[in-house]
Amino acid sequence: MEEQIEVWAEYLGQRRGFSAATVRAYVSDLRLCMGSVKSFTSRELRSWLASRAAEGASRATVARNAAALRAFGSWALAQGIVDEDPAVDIETAPVKSRLPQVLDTDAVTALLEGAKCEADTPIGVRDWAFFELLYGSGLRVGEACSLDVDDLNLDQGFLRVLGKGNKERVAPVGTPAAKALMQWLQERSDVAKPGEKALFVGQRGSRVDPRVMRGRLHHLAARQGVPDIAPHGLRHTSATHMLSGGADLRFVQDYLGHASLATTQRYTHVDSERLGRVYRQAHPRA
Q: Taking every annotated instance into account, which residue ranges of this chain make up the domain Tyr recombinase (predicted)?
C-alpha cells in the first residue's frame, strides 16, 4: 500500500497540480486512515471519519480527511486497484466559511514600520522584505517562500509567482516592498549558500520554511502591540484594502491568483461587515 500511496502522491502533484502542502496533507490523512481501518470499504471509511469527529477534529479537518479519501478512491478505481470506489459517496457536514482576518491600515503600518525598525541584521532585513511583500503583493506564504531571485524584476516593478495548481501569475511590487527587497538583496549574499536560488533564505543559507516565517510574524505582531495575525491574514488584509480603495473585483481576483471569483467575493463580505459597524456607530437612525 505504501508504494501505491507514493505513486498517488506523485499523481496529485504532477498530474492534478495540487500544491506540495495539499499533497502532504492528503498523504498524511490517507496514512492515518489506513493505519486505523481494517479494510478500504465504505463502512470502514465512514466509521473512521466519525471517530475523527468524536476525537475532536474540526469540521474543516474532517472535510479534508474525506476529500483525501475521495481523491485516493477515484484514483485507485481508475488504476484498477479496486473494483468500486468506496469513498465516492462520502460526505461530511459543510464547513462554516469564516470571514478573513483583517488589520486596519494603522495596524498594518505599525507592523511593517516595526519590521523596518528591527531590520538591523540580515535576518531582520529579510523579515522586513518578506512581510512587505506579503502585504504589498498579496502573496501566500508558500508562494513567497518558493520565490527564486530570478523571479524578481525590480526595474519593472513585478515578480513571477507560481501559485496553486502550478499556475503562474505576475504580481506587482509596491515601493516600500521594493526598497526592502533591494536592501535584502544586498544582505542576502552574506547569508545564502553559494549557488542557492531561493530569494528568501534562513540562517543556514537555504530556502526558508513557511513555518519559520509564520512564527516570525506572530512574534513581530506581539512586539509591535498589534492584533495577532498569520501570514495569510496579511494577504486577506491586502485584498480588503484594495477593494476598499476602489479596486475592481476581477482585478483583485487576478491579483490574488484566485481560480474562482466566488473566492474573491469573500473579501467584499468583510468590507460590508466593516461598513455595517461604522454605520451603526455613526448614523443617528441606525
A: 98-280
